[in-house]
Amino acid sequence: xxxxxxAGNWKMNTxxxxxxELVSGMRRGLDQIAHVDKVICPPFIxxxxxxxxxxxxxxxxGAQNIYFEEKGAYTGEIxxxxxxxxxxxxxxxxxxxxxxxxxxxxxxNKKIQAALRVGLKPILCIGERLEENEAGRTEEVVTxxxxxxxxxxxxxxxxxxxxxxxxxxxxxxxxTGEQANETIGLIRRNIAKLYGKRIAQDVRILYGGSVTxxxxxxxxxxxxxxxxxxxxxxxxxxxxxxxxxxxxxxRQLLSG
Length: 256
Ligand code: PEP
Known about the structure:
Strand content: 5-15%
Number of helices: 11
Distance between the termini: 12 Å
Strand order of the largest sheet: 1-2-3-4-5-6-7-8
Shape: globular
Bound molecules: phosphoenolpyruvate
Structural class: alpha/beta
Radius of gyration: 17 Å
CATH superfamily: Aldolase class I
Number of strands: 8
CATH class: Alpha Beta
Order of helices and strands: EHEHEHEHHEHHEHHEHEH
Helix content: 40-55%
CATH topology: TIM Barrel
C-alpha cells in the first residue's frame, strides 16, 4: 500500500510575505499528520524562504516548473541543478503550461529527463480536454501523453503521475471518484505495459481537478488513487490541512 501524497500547487499566487504567512498557518498542523507525504509547491521566488520555514518538519517542497538545460543564456529560466538545491519535487507538464506556454510532449519529456538526472521527483501531469472527454477520447489522449512524456526514460525513480482532466481544473467541476479511478487504472495499466507490473504497482498516481475539503475523501478512497494534486484549495491553510487529514484517516482505516 502506498503512502498517500497530497501536493499543493499554489500556481502564480502569493508574494514572498504571503507565502510565509500561508506556510506559517499550516506548518504545525501539517507536521502533526503522519503517514501522508505533504508537498507544497509555491512560486519559484518563495522556495528559499519556505524551505527555511519548513526545515526540520515533515513537509516537503516542490517547484511548479523547470527548464531542461543545465545552465547558460536562457534568460528567466530556472535550471535543474538550481532546483535540486532547493526542493525534492517538481510539477512538469501542467495543463496550464501546455495551454498558455505551448509545452509539447517533447518539451515535457526533456524536462522530465532533466529533472530525473539531478534527482528531482517529477509530478507529471496528464489529462484530457472537455471536448476530448465528450468524444470518448480520454483513453487515447492520456495514453499518448504518457507515451510521449516518458519516451526514452528507462527508470521512473520516484516519478509521480497526476491525472488532471482539464475540464476539472479550477472549474469547481470535479470528476467523480469512479471516473477518476477508472482513468487512473488505465494509466497504471499503461505503465505496466511500458515498465512492467511491479513498477506500475509502485508508481503513485494522483487525481487533480477541483479537489476540496468537501470532496477529497471521495477521491482518496478509490483503490487506484494515491493522493491528490490540489490547486485552489491549497491556498487556504484550513482546506489543505483538512484534505491531508482525510488522506491520513483513510490510510489508517485501510491499514487497520
Ligand atoms: C491544479 O492546479 O493542478 C489543480 C488541480 O487546480 P484546482 O484544484 O484549483 O482545480
